[in-house]
Structure formats: structure tokens, C-alpha cells
Design a protein that fits this description.
By secondary structure, the chain is α/β, with parallel strands linked by helices. The chain is 40% helix and 27% strand. Strands 1, 2, 3, 4, 5, 6, 7 and 8 form an eight-stranded mixed beta sheet that branches. GO terms for molecular function: methyltransferase activity.
């Protein structure tokens, strides 16, 4: 029998990888599309768990890096709004922190393309960072994504309101990111977009002050928190 003390112990919040794996397993997905795959980190993780991974990214260097990192997966240089795949090719598709990197004018076109390439009964998983939290506060001098993150959520809400998707799951949770020092945090930001490096160098003093003001102590060194919102969507019959 649980004691009051045991019940009071906070349980770890499932992080993104656990949530994605749960959804994909529940859907019995096999063929999975990683939209905005970058260097292939998500595809590598899911391929290791037995999923047949395909990734797309508009950046040629990112696709080359992903092919090298995950030789058993397929990667194509392409944009989300013009997917080079036949209708019904995938059991699931994932935008992991990627929808807000699609140009605002074609975000809903990207969502329509995703519906097209999903099988009947397939699932779209969208994970988007919100414009708040200590991680966001420290990164803002490098790139303030307030408006584009809001635009991604507006596009998603409009597509849902338009009757194109059934919302099966919608969660908001905190991603916990630990860094040994500010330099590791900057390296993380630059790995996502190398164009950030110059701004980070120029505003290092400001970043240092914000890092000290917002980071909390962790086992590794310092922790920053980024709230995320996750949608599991199934295409509406049409």
C-alpha cells in the first residue's frame, strides 16, 4: 500500500523520446517520416528501435550528415510543402521542433502534404517549442522565435479547425536540458542553425548574464527548461 510520503514523491516527466515511442507503438507504426530531420538524431534513435525511417530536410549538408549517421535510413533533400513521396507512403510522420522552421506562407501546405503521404489510419505527431521558459529566455539574444513559433501554432490550429485532423492527444510538458557550461548551450544552438554562431559570439556577454540568471543547478551542471506542446493528429476522413 502506498504511503502519503510515497505519493508525494514527484514522478519524472516523460520526455519527448518516450512520448514519441509510446504513440508510434500504440499506432503499430513501421514506416515513419521525419520531417526536418536535420543531422538525423531522431531518425537514428527510432531506427535503433526497429522503425523504418525516412527523413527530409531542405539543407543539403544536413541530409549528407544524416545519411552518414544513419546508413540504414533513407534521407532526401526536400521541403515539407513538397514531399517527394507517393500518397499513403507512411504510417506516421513527425515534425519535431520543425514546423516553425517551415516558411509561414506554406505551413498549411506542409500539413496538407503530410496528410497526403500518410496511410489511412496514420498519425502526425507535431512537437513545437513554446515562446517561454528559461531555455527560451537565454536563447532570445541569438534568435528570438516568438513570432514564428506563434505562427506555427496558428497554422496548426487553423488546420484542425478546418476539419482536416482529429486531435487524439494534446499535451504540454517541460523539456529539461542540462549543460556543463554556457559554451555547451551555445554549441547546441549553433548545431541547430550554424548561422547563429556569429550572433552568439557578438552577444556572448549578454548570453552569459542570462545563463547565470536563468539556469538552475543540476547533476551535470546547469539546467534550462523549455515548455513544449505535443499534438497527435489523425487525418479526418474526406
Amino acid at each position: 500500500m502506498s504511503t502519503p510520503e510515497a505519493l508525494a514523491v514527484p514522478r519524472p516527466v516523460p520526455q519527448t523520446g518516450e512520448r514519441l515511442l509510446e504513440i508510434l507503438t500504440d499506432r503499430k507504426a513501421r514506416n515513419v517520416l521525419d520531417i526536418g530531420c536535420g543531422h538525423g538524431a531522431l531518425s537514428r534513435s527510432l531506427a535503433a528501435k526497429g522503425f523504418a525511417m525516412t527523413g527530409i530536410d531542405p539543407d543539403e549538408d544536413a541530409v549528407a550528415a544524416a545519411r552518414k549517421a544513419v546508413p540504414d535510413a533513407r534521407f532526401e533533400q526536400a521541403t515539407a510543402e513538397a514531399l517527394p513521396f507517393a500518397d499513403g507512403s507512411f504510417d506516421a510522420a513527425i515534425f519535431l521542433n520543425a514546423l516553425h522552421h517551415v516558411p509561414e506562407a506554406v505551413m498549411r501546405q506542409a500539413l496538407a502534404e503530410t496528410r497526403r503521404v500518410l496511410t489511412k489510419g496514420g498519425a502526425l505527431i507535431v512537437v513545437e517549442p513554446l515562446a517561454r521558459g528559461t531555455f527560451f529566455e537565454v536563447m532570445r539574444p541569438v534568435e528570438d522565435e516568438t513570432e514564428i513559433r506563434a505562427a506555427a501554432l496558428r497554422a496548426l490550429d487553423a488546420d484542425i479547425a478546418g476539419g482536416h485532423w482529429h486531435v487524439v492527444r494534446h499535451d504540454t510538458y517541460d523539456r529539461l536540458s542540462d549543460f556543463a557550461a554556457l559554451e555547451e548551450f551555445i554549441d547546441y544552438l549553433v548545431a541547430v542553425d550554424p548561422a547563429r554562431e556569429t550572433v552568439a559570439d557578438e552577444r556572448r556577454g549578454e548570453l552569459d548574464a542570462l545563463f547565470k540568471a536563468n539556469a538552475t543547478a543540476s547533476e551535470k551542471g546547469f539546467r534550462l527548461i523549455q515548455p513544449l506542446t505535443l499534438y497527435e493528429l489523425h487525418p479526418a476522413a474526406g
